[in-house]
From TrEMBL, chain A:
It comes from the Eukaryota. GO terms for molecular function: DNA binding. Residues 8-159 form the NAC domain. Keywords: DNA-binding, Nucleus, Transcription, Transcription regulation. SUPFAM superfamilies: NAC domain. It comes from Aquilegia coerulea (Rocky mountain columbine). InterPro entries: NAC-dom, NAC_dom_sf. GO terms for biological process: regulation of DNA-templated transcription; system development. This is NAC domain-containing protein.
TrEMBL record, chain B:
Keywords: DNA-binding, Nucleus, Transcription, Transcription regulation. PANTHER family: NAC DOMAIN-CONTAINING PROTEIN 43-LIKE, PROTEIN CUP-SHAPED COTYLEDON 2-RELATED. It comes from the Eukaryota. Gene3D superfamilies: NAC domain (2.170.150.80). Residues 11-172 form the NAC domain. GO terms for biological process: regulation of DNA-templated transcription. It comes from Aquilegia coerulea. One of its GO terms (molecular function) is DNA binding. This is NAC domain-containing protein.
Length: 195, 397
């Protein structure tokens, strides 16, 4: 898994939290501040089918990251992205301040409304209106807000196993059996230690 | 770009040390035992006996990014000079192994083992179990010798140090969604999780059923790509990461895993043929809550698959004593029998037989250890060598 041009020892992966995506990448992008490292590319609008992102977007494990412009029609060459229900607010972990919103989308082959659903999922992050307007000056408020809100950051992955794009390709968490043994331990204790 | 990790500079934003088991063993531990230099001081040496789990996160942090797990090298210290047991006691408690060790593969070759341990506060046998879990990885003796990348001295002799292990420590997650978790579930599931968290025991069953129902619905959408992946690395059933305990019918579920991400990694793709019809039938034929509960448990609790098959069968036959049947799973004795039995189950059994067996199982398993007899009788009478389930009960431990 080559993580682009960042030279890190084995085991390091691009594995960002929602907050990092919004605060470190999206806010800086919108504010035209340099990103270090500048690793997430800007793919204009939504021209690529999800399986064509490899090599164009930043790959972190089996997920791809790129910037795009905010639009309501997310069309690619062979299909479109359909939003799923409600958006989720992104809040900072230390201050509970709302910094952005996360939208869930599914890729459909073909043309709306007749497309064929695929298992490609997108998380589309945008800055929340309050976050972008608070950082702008009063005189330039309107244009700044408009400018900041035009960027979105997309995470795309194929949801093969219903795991919502987990990067754990080996089971690093507790397996089901681990859980069972953990819960059994107490009972074994009672049996094993008659004293 | 080069950076020093445990020193001054930081890992760039968004990057985390999230090594695979193969990387841990084949890169880091192999270099460690072979006295090779590891470029960056990513994994530190610690004295496990002097380090409490809650101090590990400070000692083993990498950069300043938030972490959910921590890594270190440890040199195994023998409990008794003549024995082989390892001393894993600290000032405040001890690490106790649980389950069986798991074999770690790399390209179908066995390279090492993983031991799972739990931290108990206090002293055995009165320790109090904590949420701290450790995965202790060790290399196979044979792999170290057989591979060509190990260190050798000027005479060409193999130099390596015994007793080093690489450990990963983490806190067992509750089903509450962590903000640090980069891969999040959908909004809908997180909302229902929150509902469950905020609820007391009142109406818990309703909420669980609702929760499971939603999850099932989502999964039934995905049923076309509910993949049974041919596993290249392991034969384990990978299920969920966050167990939750819930009250149902007055009994406690045993650490029932969360339902958002059931993934079956199977070596035998033939199991697909076996599971799908039942699963599909459940979803389409019966939309009742009870079947959703059964189905959820069925999908997520890989351990008791064979038993659940029976329950599902009896349910399809009109039997709706769901809560009674589920109570089977609360009985540790029952679970233990299930995991250790090597018998095979035939799916084509008469449904009436299944139903009576399931009932018998329930009534007897709650009484005493002698109830095993019924279970065994049932298993023996229904054994079949062609059953794809056999590898689940045999090899997934």
């Amino acid at each position: 898994m080559g993580d682009n041009n960042v030279n890190l020892p084995p085991g390091f992966r691009f594995y960002p939290t929602d907050e990092e995506l919004v605060v470190h990448f999206l806010q800086r992008k919108a504010a035209r501040l340099p990103c270090h490292p500048d690793i997430i590319p800007d793919l204009n609008l939504y021209p690529y089918d999800p399986w064509d992102l490899d090599g164009k977007a930043l790959s972190g494990g089996s997920q791809w990251y790129y910037f795009s412009r905010r639009t309501s029609t997310r069309m690619s060459a062979n299909g479109f992205w359909q939003p799923l229900g409600i958006d989720e607010p992104i809040v900072t972990s230390n201050s509970d301040r709302k910094v952005g919103m996360k939208k869930y989308l599914v890729f459909y082959l073909g043309e709306a409304p007749m497309g064929i659903k695929t298992n490609w999922i997108m998380h589309e992050y945008r800055l929340s209106d309050t976050a972008s307007s608070s950082s702008s000056r009063s005189s330039k408020k309107k244009t700044a807000t408009k400018d900041a809100s035009k960027w979105v950051l997309c995470r795309v992955f194929e949801d093969n196993d219903g795991s919502q794009g987990s990067l754990c390709d080996n089971d690093q968490e507790l397996s089901c059996l681990d859980e069972v043994f953990l819960s059994l331990d107490d009972d074994f204790d009672e049996i094993n230690y008659p004293n | 770009m080069s950076l020093s990790v445990n020193g001054q500079s930081q890992v760039p934003p968004g990057f985390r040390f999230h090594p695979t088991e193969e990387e841990l063993l084949h890169y880091y531990l192999k270099k460690k035992v072979g006295y090779e230099k590891i470029d960056l001081d990513v994994i530190r040496d610690v004295d496990l006996n002097k380090l409490e789990p809650w101090d590990i996160q400070e000692k083993c942090k990498i950069g300043s990014t938030p972490q959910n797990d921590w890594y270190f090298f440890s040199h195994k210290d023998k409990k008794y000079p003549t024995g082989t047991r390892t001393n894993r006691a600290t000032a405040a408690g001890f690490w106790k192994a649980t389950g069986r060790d798991k074999i770690i593969y790399s390209n179908f070759k066995r390279i090492g083992m993983r031991k799972t341990l739990v931290f108990y506060k206090g002293r055995a046998p009165h320790g109090q179990k904590s949420d701290w879990i450790m995965h202790e990885y060790r290399l196979d003796d044979t792999t170290a010798v057989a591979t060509d990348t190990i260190a050798s001295n000027s005479l060409g002799e193999i130099v390596q140090e015994e007793g080093w292990v690489v450990c990963r420590v983490f806190k067992k997650k509750n089903h509450h969604k962590s903000l640090d978790s980069p891969s999040n579930s959908t909004n809908i599931t997180s909302i229902s999780k929150t509902q469950m968290l905020n609820s007391n025991n009142d109406g818990a069953l309703d909420q669980i059923i609702q929760y499971m129902g939603r999850t099932c619905k989502k999964e039934s959408d995905n049923i076309n790509h509910f993949n049974f992946i041919n596993s290249s690395n392991n034969s384990n059933i990978r299920v969920s990461r966050s167990p939750f305990e819930a009250t149902i019918g007055g009994d406690r579920f045993m650490q029932l895993p969360a339902l958002e991400s059931p993934t079956f990694l199977d070596q035998a793709s033939s199991s697909q043929e076996c599971y799908h019809p039942i699963e599909a039938q459940l979803i389409t034929d019966s939309e009742t809550n009870a079947s959703n509960v059964l189905n959820s448990v069925y999908q997520s609790n890989g351990l008791a698959l064979s038993e659940l098959d029976r329950l599902v069968a009896s349910h399809l036959n009109g039997q709706t004593e769901t809560s009674k049947q589920l109570a089977c799973f609360n009985d540790p004795n029952f679970m233990f029998c299930t995991t250790n039995n090597n018998s095979h189950h035939d799916h084509d059994l008469q449904l009436s037989q299944l139903r009576s067996s399931a009932n018998r199982l329930y009534h007897h398993s709650t009484q005493d250890y002698n109830s095993d007899i019924d279970l065994w009788n049932f298993n023996q009478s229904s054994s079949s060598s062609s059953d794809p389930l056999c590898h689940v009960s045999n090899s997934s431990v």
